From TrEMBL:
Protein name: MFS transporter
Organism the protein comes from: Microbacterium sp. A8/3-1
Family: Belongs to the major facilitator superfamily. Metabolite:H+ Symporter (MHS) family (TC 2.A.1.6) family.
Main location: membrane
Molecular function terms, GO-annotated: symporter activity
Every Major facilitator superfamily (MFS) profile domain range: 26-439
Length: 446
C-alpha cells in the first residue's frame, strides 16, 4: 500500500514555476485565509462553556455534552463539504472557491453570535446552533485541502514544506488570537458579563475578518499547476469518478485517513478543547478559571507557532518521514507525564506541560499536510485529499471532545486525553511505514 514517489513526466516538466515574489504572495494569502477560517472554527471550542450556559440552558455536564455534540456535528458535515468542494475545486480551480468558503464560514460564525438564548426561544436555540455548526463544518471540509493545494501548487519543490507551513501557523495564530481576545474580554468585562452577553463579541468579530480574507484571496491568480492542466485540456471531467476508479488514489486516501491520526488529540484536544478541559475536567478544587485556562492555551500556542516553520525547514532538508516519526514518538513519550502535571491544578506546571506537548506535536503539525498534498496528482488533489482528511478528522478529531467528556465523566479519570495522544501517535507511526519519502519531488500532474 506504499504511496510511491513517481519520476517526472513531460507534463510535470511543462508546469510553469512561479517566481519567489508570487510564491510569497500565495503563502500570505493562504495563511491569512487559514487564520480567518480557523478563528471562526476555533472559538466554538474556546467558548464552549458560555455556549452551554446560554444556548443549551445551563452549565451542567449535560449542557456541556450537548455543546460538544455541536462540535461533533460540524465534523460530520465536513465530508459533504469535502466531496462537493473537492469536486468543484478540481473542476473549476482553487482560488474562487476558497474565497467563497471564507464568506460562508464567517457568516455562519457571526450568526452564532446572534442566536437568541435558550431562555428566549427555548429548544430553537440549540437547533439553530447545530444548523450553523453544520455550515461551518461544510466550509472547513473544503478549506483545508484547498488552501494546502493552493499554496503547494505555487511553492518551489525544494522549499514546499516551509511555504505550506505558514497555513498551519495561520490556524494556530487564529486560536491564539481567539484565546487572547476572549481573555481580554473576560478580564475587562468579568465572567458574569461574558456569561450574560459578551460571549457573542468574538463570534460577531468574524464578519469583518471574513471580508478581509475574502478580499485578499480574490486578488490572487489561479495556481500554476492548475493553469497548466487547463492549457493542456487535462482537467478531470469528473474528479470524483477519477478518485474512486483509481486503485492507487484509493490506497492513498486510506493513508490520508490514518496517517494524520495524531492530529486529532494534537490539535483539537491540546488547543481547541484544552480551555474547556482545564475548566471542567480536573476535579473539585483543581479546575482552572476560564481566564487561567486561556492563558495556559496561549502559552502552548506561542510555542507551536515558533516551532512549526523550524520543523518545516528541517523537513525540507532531512525528509518528511523523519520529522513525522520523531514528532509521533516525542508526543507519545511526553503525553502521560504532561497530563499528570496538568491535573495537579497548578498553573505553572500546566503551562510547562502544554508547552512541552506543543513542541513535541509541532513536527506533525508542520509536515502532515505537505505529505498529504504530495500524495495526490493535481487532477484530483483537492477531491481526494479533502475526502481522506475529513474522514480522519471525524474519527480522530471531531469526536474527541464529546468522547473525552463522556469517558472522563464515566471513569473519573482526567488522564484520558493522554492515552488518546499515545494511541493515535502509534497509529501515525504504523501508517508511516507505507508512505514514500516525497521531499524535493515535483507534484504529479495526472
Amino acid at each position: 500500500m506504499t504511496a510511491e514517489a513517481q519520476p517526472l513526466s513531460t507534463e510535470q516538466v511543462a508546469v510553469v514555476t512561479a517566481d519567489g515574489k508570487v510564491v510569497r504572495k500565495a503563502t500570505v494569502a493562504g495563511a491569512i485565509g487559514s487564520f480567518v477560517e480557523w478563528y471562526d472554527y476555533g472559538i466554538y471550542g474556546l467558548l464552549a462553556t458560555y455556549l452551554a450556559i446560554n444556548i443549551m440552558g445551563g452549565a451542567d455536564t449535560g449542557a456541556l455534552f450537548l455543546t460538544n455534540v455541536g462540535f461533533l456535528v460540524s465534523f460530520i458535515a465536513r465530508p459533504f463539504g469535502s466531496v462537493i468542494c473537492g469536486y468543484l475545486g478540481d473542476r473549476m480551480g482553487r482560488k474562487t472557491l476558497l474565497a467563497a468558503l471564507l464568506i460562508l464560514i464567517s457568516v455562519a460564525t457571526a450568526c452564532i453570535g446572534l442566536v437568541p438564548s435558550h431562555e428566549v426561544i427555548g429548544v430553537a436555540a440549540p437547533i439553530l446552533l447545530i444548523a450553523l455548526r453544520v455550515l461551518q463544518g461544510f466550509s472547513a471540509g473544503g478549506e483545508v485541502a484547498g488552501a494546502m493545494a493552493f499554496v503547494g501548487e505555487y511553492a518551489h519543490n525544494a522549499t514546499r514544506n516551509f511555504s505550506m507551513s505558514f497555513i498551519a501557523v495561520g490556524s494556530f495564530l487564529a486560536l491564539m488570537f481567539g484565546s487572547a481576545f476572549s481573555a481580554v474580554l473576560i478580564t475587562t468585562l468579568g465572567d458574569e458579563t461574558m456569561s450574560a452577553w459578551a460571549w457573542r463579541i468574538p463570534f460577531l468579530f468574524a464578519a469583518p475578518l471574513g471580508y478581509i480574507g475574502f478580499y485578499i484571496r480574490r486578488r490572487m491568480e489561479e495556481t500554476p499547476h492548475f493553469e497548466a492542466l487547463r492549457e493542456r485540456k487535462s482537467v478531470a471531467r469528473n474528479p470524483l469518478k477519477a478518485v474512486f476508479t483509481s486503485k492507487r488514489t484509493m490506497l492513498a486516501i486510506v493513508l490520508t485517513i490514518f496517517l494524520p491520526a495524531l492530529n486529532g488529540p494534537g490539535y483539537y484536544l491540546l488547543f481547541a478543547y484544552m480551555p474547556t478541559y482545564l475548566k471542567t475536567s480536573l476535579g473539585e478544587g483543581q479546575n482552572f478559571t476560564m481566564l487561567q485556562a486561556l492563558m495556559v492555551t496561549a502559552c502552548s500556542l506561542v510555542a507551536i507557532i515558533i516551532c512549526i516553520p523550524l520543523m518545516a525547514r528541517l523537513s525540507d532538508r532531512i525528509g518528511r518521514k523523519k520529522v513525522l516519526a520523531f514528532s509521533a514518538v516525542a508526543t507519545a513519550v511526553v503525553a502521560y507525564p504532561a497530563f499528570a502535571m496538568i491535573t495537579t491544578g497548578q498553573i505553572g506546571l500546566a503551562i510547562i506541560a502544554t508547552i512541552v506537548m506543543a513542541i513535541a506535536f509541532s513536527g506533525h503539525a508542520a509536515v502532515i499536510h505537505t505529505v498529504l498534498t504530495e500524495m495526490f496528482p493535481t487532477t484530483v488533489r483537492y477531491s481526494a485529499y479533502s475526502i481522506g482528511f475529513s474522514l480522519s478528522t471525524i474519527i480522530f478529531g471531531g469526536s474527541a471532545p464529546l468522547v473525552m467528556t463522556a469517558i472522563i465523566n464515566a471513569t473519573g479519570s482526567s488522564m484520558v486525553p493522554a492515552f488518546a495522544a499515545i494511541i493515535t501517535a502509534g497509529i501515525t507511526l504504523v501508517s508511516l511505514i507505507f508512505v514514500a519519502e516525497t521531499r524535493g519531488t515535483a507534484l504529479r500532474a495526472e
